[in-house]
Write a structure and sequence with these properties.
heterotrimer; A alpha+beta (483); B alpha+beta (98); C alpha/beta (495); A: 483 residues; alpha+beta; Arc Repressor Mutant, subunit A; 3 domains; 3-stranded antiparallel beta sheet; B: 98 residues; Histone, subunit A; two-stranded antiparallel sheet
Chain lengths: 483, 98, 495
């Protein structure tokens, strides 16, 4: 059953396409040698090129080109060996040159596709139309002065990749899953840090609605949405607005809108009213960008493993598809998991990472990049389970102690004497005491009340303060009761 | 092709050049004169011709790439020195409503 | 000999011999400027103190044995080249207070070779014009005047009118200039001096206020072909800061001047024999070809079938690029801002740009905006770039048969300051012989070759293959030697 929104006139389908602006990870800007670091003093990372001074000329940063190509390869997309920069002309306070250098007619990356996985486990392929390189604009601050806006050009000229999807998404969830997937791929590739709080990734969301079986209706573009949650909310808010417009007998006009996160609605963007005639033409200051296929092949050979491949590998290692999915969402998680699992039982490692470890991260509000226990220590804990030094329940105690103290599990076991008892003789002695103290129950068991077996195991474990090896305890109790 | 005054106003607006009413008429006459003269280009057969992309006399010109090195910036004062309305470390403009 | 009468080569020799110092040479030019510039208006800004300090420093370097290729030579710098710490206006009100914190690559190269900058030369606003009447600093006067009508003030040509007038009037030994459609060659011809627009990519455009990026090229103007060659050698060269700069070695152009033309094939484009062309222009052209034949060259008729479309092509491409290049003049980061109480950002832009740009610049920005606007791009800009490719191909075909092409530099001699001002298209026709070289990116040299009936200079143009300025200089020097152009303008220093 496909996703619809119920209007007065019946159900409406959604059609969604995303233009994701991803800041390229590079030291210097796309066309100048100024730094790209986030959070610097205003106008301190600005060259005269970035500020559009007279006589300044752009020169392309090779690493930004390489990052775009890596991203294209990661999106299973066509790499265009011949591409070109164009000027997109419009006036805006934070656009110093009066144009943005972008790739309009001949992008560096052509068609590609990514697969998204939805909550119900269903997968769907979303088409990529293109990826192109362009320069970012500066930043306008509107809250510093009563009657003025302040302009900071630090971001002006930073390389962006604009990744344009096909209008293939049909629900807020799909839009969210797509953005999540792109972010995941870029972070794996190391081409964008995906940090949406700092604006290094943001999306323009194109939304239209239609009745089942119709072609496309007019779409609106919701600009600069800066979190995955807001993208999903913006899609729904804008779709509901359009449904109301259509149902009121009016027409939806193609326009640029902003998502008001506080009120959960979209509103028309005044400043973009007449910006539609961009007068694109080839950037005369830059000859065409021509790539050598050998160079592209070398980048391809050096690409890191991508999440889909990694996930498949985890499934082949015996992990459930769900665990494989969860463990590959973030590259850091996958790296952590692989350190834990190295030379060990992969399923056991997956259970611990997705179970107790994730729970601990949540509880302690920590991040896998800054974990409360190291992957090495968690691996050592698994070793103690495998060699039967610790039972499952003891291991949980030790894990809690590791969280509290940061110590290695071996050390904790030593200090607290939490070592599992695997000496059969010692267990037999305890079982004998338990049976002696519960002679009535022994009789009941032997007369056929076999469910009392668990009682004897429990009593034995209790007497041993939980340190008895569970399998051995079971075995000894069984033998003893059988008399 | 002859441009009407509405088109002249639209172009001036796109180019962000304020035109007084009296200037619209004059601009219209001059621009139409020039465009009329340019119109002769339409008679050239350009079927199948690759347009020139830049000014290089070499048809196979290609962009040179520079290494990813930070060697510019760190000069806020120089960047702001010519500003008609410097506001601390920022450029000031009339408040923009988005 | 008055110090301002030296050629650049001659001044270098005199400096080497110690018969004059850079300070003396510079002071003589500053004296000439003080006397004549109030009338000629060739300089927008005179940097007398800086010039004398630079001359003193140069003399000290020379004494210490450090001698650059232009050591101690006083030059004028077109006010389109950004000069660190010295106001750079581009001839526009919108930049009248702009002091660049950086130096253009070309002017830096000249400084590195020991040159002394006398000041910034006047020009048409943003280099848009053929008469130097559009400058916000007022028109430049040609130091030449008609023999039978000495009171009519003539234009020096444009856009490098200040550079050409300064050099012709002996107010500099040479000058930098730029050429987008003829802005070096046409004023050089009008002022009876030499000037070369090199191959596109030969000189870096970094730090030169852009007019039309795919057409702009810097070059020198000077009183002899050899002086141009010496200056170009210093100005040219690969610059990693300009993506369109050619990564090629710079030949010894001065040496190429003496190569001669023996065995060269000189193309004569039949399409340049325009109906109604002035008979004295036709005669001068024929004379020039005869001189070359006399020197051992062969002249060959060639065809440039699309040449007649060059000007309309130019008047699409150049304004289109200019409309975009000049968008940065918005009164936010530099330059003049014009507002009214309550102006919003849009109003600020519109008032600043209406007041800051003169009529010709506004006109070209509007044409450029129109030809790029939605629905017209294909019909105008794309069409023009295709015709441009055809023009380039015409030259490629021609150069299969010839080594250089010789044409008149301009369709007429200098005209009066009040002539041709009301009809933009009539003004644009000044560039009819020069603009093809810009569209095809080829080098073009203007050489003074004779006088018209009223005693005004006329020039010939040599167009060469891409990056073959050497042949252009060889042909130009041969024409110069044969023409033996010794006439002098009435207004000049030391006169």
């Amino acid at each position: 059953m496909s996703y619809t929104i119920e209007g007065r006139t019946g159900p409406w389908e959604l059609v969604i396409g995303l233009e994701i602006h991803a800041q390229v990870i590079s030291e210097a800007k796309l066309f100048s040698g100024a730094a790209t670091e986030f959070g610097a003093e205003p106008n301190s990372q600005v060259s005269f090129i970035d500020a559009g001074f007279p006589g300044m000329l752009p020169v392309i940063n090779a690493e930004c080109v390489a990052q775009a190509v890596r991203t294209g390869l990661g999106l299973n997309a066509q790499v265009n060996l011949w591409s070109r920069f164009d000027r997109k002309n419009y006036f805006y306070a934070d656009l110093p040159q009066g144009f943005q250098i972008s790739q309009f007619a001949h992008p560096i990356i052509g068609e590609g596709a990514v697969e998204i996985t939805l909550a119900d486990g269903v997968t769907k392929t979303i088409g990529i139309t293109r990826l192109h390189l362009e320069q970012d604009a500066g930043k306008s601050l509107h809250d510093q002065h009563a009657t003025k806006s302040f302009i900071d050009l630090n971001r002006s000229g930073v390389a962006l990749m604009e990744i344009v999807s096909e209008p293939d998404m049909r629900s807020p969830e799909e839009a969210g899953a797509y953005l999540t997937k792109i972010r995941q791929i870029l972070r794996y590739l190391g081409t964008c840090d995906g940090n949406m709080d700092e604006g290094s990734m943001r999306a323009d969301v194109n939304v239209s609605v239609r009745k089942a079986g119709e072609g496309f209706r007019t779409r609106c573009e919701v600009k600069n949405v800066n979190s995955i949650r807001f993208v999903m909310q913006a899609v729904e808010a804008e779709a509901r607005r359009q449904i109301e417009v259509w149902e009121a007998g009016d027409e939806v006009f193609q326009e640029t809108r902003l998502f008001d996160t506080a009120r959960g609605i979209t509103r028309s963007m005044r400043s973009k009213e007449d910006a539609h005639d961009y007068r694109y033409f080839p950037e005369p200051d830059l000859p065409p960008l021509v790539l050598e296929s050998d160079w592209v092949e070398a980048l391809k050979a050096a690409l890191p493993e991508l999440p889909d491949v990694r996930r498949a590998r985890y499934v082949a290692m015996g992990l459930s598809p769900y665990d494989a999915h969860v463990l590959t969402l973030e590259k850091e998680t996958a790296v952590f998991f692989e350190t834990v699992a190295k030379g060990r039982d992969a399923k056991l490692a997956a259970n611990w990472v997705t179970g107790d470890f994730f729970a601990a991260l949540n509880r302690l509000k920590r991040d896998v990049a800054d974990p409360p226990v190291t992957a090495e220590n968690l691996g050592a804990l698994l070793d103690l389970i495998s060699d039967k030094t610790l039972s499952g329940s003891l291991a949980k105690q030790v894990f809690e102690a590791m969280l509290e103290t940061g110590k290695a599990p071996g050390e904790i076991v030593e200090e607290r004497g939490l070592k599992q008892v695997t000496d059969t003789g010692a267990i037999e002695a305890v079982v004998a005491q338990v049976m002696a103290a519960n002679a009535d129950k022994v009789a009941e068991y032997r007369s056929g009340k076999e469910k009392l077996f668990g009682f004897f195991v429990g009593q034995t474990m209790k007497a041993m303060q939980g340190k008895g090896n569970p399998a051995l305890v079971n075995e000894v109790v069984k033998t003893a009761l059988a008399g | 092709m002859s441009l009407d005054t509405a088109t002249i106003r639209r172009i001036a607006s796109l180019a962000r050049i304020r035109l007084d009413e009296s200037e619209v008429q004059q601009a219209q006459a001059e621009i139409n004169g020039i465009l009329g003269w340019i119109e002769q280009l339409q008679e050239v057969d350009t079927e199948g011709v690759e347009p020139m992309a830049g000014g290089s006399p070499v048809a196979q010109a290609r962009a040179r790439l520079r290494p990813d090195v930070v060697n510019d910036g760190g000069q806020a004062d120089a960047i702001l020195a010519n500003a008609p309305d410097r506001q601390g470390e920022y450029f000031g403009v009339p408040k923009v409503v988005e | 000999m008055h110090p301002t009468d030296f050629t650049l080569r001659g001044a270098l020799d005199a400096l080497t011999e110690g018969t004059i110092s850079s300070v003396e040479l510079t002071q003589a030019h500053l004296d000439g400027i003080a006397k004549l510039n109030p009338r000629l208006n060739a300089y927008v800004t005179v940097t007398a103190e800086k010039a004398l300090a630079a001359a003193r420093a140069s003399d000290e370097r020379r004494a210490a044995g450090q001698v650059g290729a232009l050591e101690g030579i006083p030059l004028a710098i077109k006010d389109l080249f950004c000069t660190a710490g010295t106001r750079t206006t581009a001839g526009s009100r919108i930049l009248d207070s702009f002091v660049p914190p950086y130096e253009s690559t070309v002017s830096q190269k000249l400084l590195d070779d020991g040159a002394v900058f006398l000041g910034k030369a006047n020009l048409d606003e943003f280099a848009m014009g053929s008469s130097n009447t559009t400058s916000a600093s007022g028109p430049v006067e040609n130091p030449w005047s008609r023999a039978n009508d000495p009171d009519t003030r003539l234009v020096p040509g444009g856009s490098s009118g200040g550079s050409a007038a300064a050099v012709a009037a002996r107010l500099a030994l040479g000058a930098t200039a730029t050429d987008t459609g003829g802005s070096i060659r046409q004023p050089a011809a009008f002022c009876g001096i030499a000037g070369i627009k090199p191959t596109y990519g030969r000189c870096s455009r970094f730090g030169i206020v852009a007019f039309a990026s795919s057409l702009d090229q810097a070059g020198p103007v000077a009183r002899t072909v050899e002086d141009c060659a010496i200056l170009l050698k210093s100005m040219a060269g690969f610059d990693p800061k300009d993506s369109t700069s050619a990564d090629l070695p710079v030949p010894d152009f001065a040496r190429a001047c003496e190569r001669g033309v023996k065995g060269l094939r000189i193309g004569v484009p039949k399409e340049y024999r325009l109906d109604g062309m002035a008979p004295e222009i036709v005669a001068l052209w024929e004379q020039g070809l005869q001189w070359l034949r006399d020197a051992g060259a062969e002249t060959v008729e060639i065809s440039l079938p699309h040449a007649k479309y060059a000007l309309p092509t130019y008047y699409i491409v150049a304004p289109a690029e200019a409309s975009s290049n000049l968008a940065r003049y918005d009164g936010v980061r530099f330059g003049t801002r014009v507002t009214e109480p309550g102006s919003d950002l849009r109003d600020l832009y519109e008032r600043t740009r209406a007041a800051g740009f003169g009529p010709e610049v506004r006109r070209r920005i509007m044409i450029g905006t129109y030809v790029l606007s939605a629905g017209y791009y294909d019909a105008y800009y794309l069409k023009a770039q295709k015709v441009r490719a055809l023009i380039r191909r015409d030259f490629e075909n021609a150069y299969a048969a010839v080594d250089a092409i010789v044409t008149p530099a301009t369709p007429s001699a200098a005209f009066g300051m009040n002539e041709k001002q009301d009809d933009p298209v009539a003004m644009y026709l000044n560039d009819i012989f020069t603009v093809t070289a810009n569209l095809a990116g080829l080098p073009g040299l203007a050489v003074p070759a004779g006088l018209d009936a009223q005693g005004l200079p006329l020039g010939l143009q040599v167009i060469g293959r891409a990056f073959d300025e050497e042949t252009v200089f060889a042909v130009g020097r041969t024409l110069e030697r044969a023409a033996d152009f010794t006439a002098l303008p009435r207004l000049r220093a030391g006169a």
